[in-house]
Amino acid sequence: MINKIAIIGGGNLGTAIAKGLVNAREPYRGELVVTRRRVHLIKHLEANGIKVIKNNAEAVHNADLVILAVKPFQLKDILTEISSAIRPDAILISLAAGVDSKTIAEMCPGQKAIFRVMPNTAISIGESMTCISSFNATAEQDQTIRELFETVGVVQFIPEELMSAATVLAACGIAYALRFIRAATQGGVEIGFGSDLALKIAAQTVKGASELIIRGQSHPEAEIDKVTTPRGITISGLNEMEHQGFSSALIKGLVTSFEKIENGSRKK
């Protein structure tokens, strides 16, 4: 049972996780602590019953679960700072992209169960796609972490070697999807809608498209075929987008992000 969770790093993702956990379908009822150097920036979390402090060692004291929501280059210093305060049986979760579990274990000797977890910011509303890999964890600990993150979205356990790819497809991917919505909104304005109405239509259309795939367990091309007719307006638009490099640009963007993570890991 997890009675206390400490989130080290109250940035965008750490804050989103905290909000998601307390506002989940099955809200987290234990003690939840979030840290940040400039603690005034996360004071608003207190309205949700979340404790906010500066001291990382104090935050992890007696915590069952420690979530490291910090940048990769900060990880070593943070682990050095909290290593004497963290319980040996505590579960350690790292959100730092590109830093493998073995390296984390070397940074924090004596810590057994280590998870690498990559949610996205939709975790704040319970709609994250969260990818998880485990290291030296028991089946019971795997289940504990699965159940915790299933309260704030969909969970998929993956081999650790796919964590960098998961970071790009799920975490960076939400930004790519939002950029599509923004572009569709701008296009909607070009063809006559006001910006607010164009945004509403574009966002709901993307949501509907996603649900067709998720609920219907269909393939995107099968759904595309249903709305493209010979000499029709949809296929004309799609073909023009492809001529302009739509799919190619998206794939290149994904690969570029992935290569940046991989190059960063090799430099360590």
TrEMBL record:
EC code(s) of this entry: 1.5.1.2
Superkingdom of source: Bacteria
Binding residue positions for NADP(+): 8-13, 69-72
Domain Pyrroline-5-carboxylate reductase dimerisation: 160-261
InterPro entries hit by this protein: 6-PGluconate_DH-like_C_sf (IPR008927), NAD(P)-bd_dom_sf (IPR036291), P5C_Rdtase_cat_N (IPR028939), P5CR_dimer (IPR029036), Pyrroline-COOH_reductase (IPR000304)
Pathway the protein acts in: Amino-acid biosynthesis; L-proline biosynthesis; L-proline from L-glutamate 5-semialdehyde: step 1/1
Intracellular or extracellular location(s): Cytoplasm
Record has Oxidoreductase as a keyword: yes
Catalytic activity line of the entry: L-proline + NAD(+) = (S)-1-pyrroline-5-carboxylate + NADH + 2 H(+); L-proline + NADP(+) = (S)-1-pyrroline-5-carboxylate + NADPH + 2 H(+)
GO CC annotation: cytoplasm
GO biological process terms held by the UniProt record: L-proline biosynthetic process
Residues bound to NADPH: 56
Keyword annotations: Amino-acid biosynthesis, Cytoplasm, NADP, Oxidoreductase, Proline biosynthesis
Keyword Secreted part of the UniProt annotation: no
GO terms for MF: pyrroline-5-carboxylate reductase activity
Residue ranges of every copy of the Pyrroline-5-carboxylate reductase catalytic N-terminal domain listed in the record: 4-98
Family per similarity comment: Belongs to the pyrroline-5-carboxylate reductase family.
Function: Catalyzes the reduction of 1-pyrroline-5-carboxylate (PCA) to L-proline.
Name by which UniProt lists this protein: Pyrroline-5-carboxylate reductase
Organism: Thermophagus xiamenensis
